[in-house]
Amino acid sequence: MATAVKPESPFAEPVAEAAERVLDFNEKVADAGRKLSAAYLDAVDTAAARYADFEEKVAGATKIDWVASTASAHAGLTRELTGAYTSAARELIK
User: 3-class DSSP state for residue 47?
Assistant: First the structure.
């Protein structure tokens, strides 16, 4: 007994083409998201560095030693924490 071959669905090719377009679109969106995330992290780095610089400048202007040393330590902590946060986030968006 011969087996009958089913003809291919008339929707197979358009569905495959649509799926390919969706995959391409998803790749573009993901790439744009990575670029936006990188720009955001750059802005966070810049803002935190400026804040820490300002804090140290203010700390240097005070005449009270413990205030100056506390503010300077806080500025260093801000830099370290921001660096750790942005480094970890950059690893995730690769």
Answer: helix
